[in-house]
């Protein structure tokens, strides 16, 4: 079943705030082998001008992937997640994510296209603090593979 | 200008650790049985794990863990990770495309596995102290 084109431009309600924990940043940094002290030691992060440990560049995906369930589980949009592969990913930062941030995601469907029997869904997630300060904008393109 | 090549070894244990840390438990990243059932040659790395390793390369080149202001990739080919002690290897190179007056450096990044590109349109913009 093709994705509903009328979803292009649709914005979903803000997600519940995600509390960025110091230990989560350390765990993520360790999992990717990022050993820079600023990811692990608050003092090292403060020396760079941050209030607490700094997340590696792709860390926001932890938050946005959870937030994207809003779309993936929306029966009206009709994504068959078993056929989804990751196409593109982009992060545009206003500032790095740091421990102590309380972040809210707003998902927007930017584009739905169809080519070669596959469908392409581009979403933008605006990640802001609960106070409304922009932190990072995240684009993700999902490919829904056609049934051969 | 070409930047020094960086290589990253990837084993099954790394994928399990990344799954736990990221919350991405898709079985194509840990079950050969599941991966082959959906037409893959075997367990593949999370695209976002590959991107995270490239992110490490970019921050290393930039010289600061908080330097990345824009980072985007397209996933073009899966990174197959065999179930053995050596796993596989991702090789990351980059060229400086532009240095702006505003102190930003734009990089064109290439990531390969077994000699084949696994990303395309991989670009990063980093803030360079100056």
From TrEMBL, chain A:
<feature type="domain" description="FAS1-like dehydratase">
    <location>
        <begin position="6"/>
        <end position="137"/>
    </location>
</feature>
<dbReference type="InterPro" id="IPR029069">
    <property type="entry name" value="HotDog_dom_sf"/>
</dbReference>
<dbReference type="InterPro" id="IPR016709">
    <property type="entry name" value="HadA-like"/>
</dbReference>
<dbReference type="GO" id="GO:0019171">
    <property type="term" value="F:(3R)-hydroxyacyl-[acyl-carrier-protein] dehydratase activity"/>
</dbReference>
<protein>
    <recommendedName>
        <fullName>UPF0336 protein ENC19_18470</fullName>
    </recommendedName>
</protein>
<dbReference type="Pfam" id="PF13452">
    <property type="entry name" value="FAS1_DH_region"/>
</dbReference>
<dbReference type="InterPro" id="IPR050965">
    <property type="entry name" value="UPF0336/Enoyl-CoA_hydratase"/>
</dbReference>
<dbReference type="GO" id="GO:0006633">
    <property type="term" value="P:fatty acid biosynthetic process"/>
</dbReference>
<dbReference type="InterPro" id="IPR039569">
    <property type="entry name" value="FAS1-like_DH_region"/>
</dbReference>
<comment type="similarity">
    <text>Belongs to the UPF0336 family.</text>
</comment>
Automatic annotation (TrEMBL), chain B:
<dbReference type="Pfam" id="PF01575">
    <property type="entry name" value="MaoC_dehydratas"/>
</dbReference>
<feature type="domain" description="MaoC-like">
    <location>
        <begin position="6"/>
        <end position="99"/>
    </location>
</feature>
<dbReference type="GO" id="GO:0006633">
    <property type="term" value="P:fatty acid biosynthetic process"/>
</dbReference>
<dbReference type="GO" id="GO:0004312">
    <property type="term" value="F:fatty acid synthase activity"/>
</dbReference>
<dbReference type="GO" id="GO:0005835">
    <property type="term" value="C:fatty acid synthase complex"/>
</dbReference>
<dbReference type="InterPro" id="IPR002539">
    <property type="entry name" value="MaoC-like_dom"/>
</dbReference>
<dbReference type="InterPro" id="IPR003965">
    <property type="entry name" value="Fatty_acid_synthase"/>
</dbReference>
<comment type="similarity">
    <text>Belongs to the enoyl-CoA hydratase/isomerase family.</text>
</comment>
<dbReference type="InterPro" id="IPR029069">
    <property type="entry name" value="HotDog_dom_sf"/>
</dbReference>
<protein>
    <submittedName>
        <fullName>MaoC family dehydratase</fullName>
    </submittedName>
</protein>
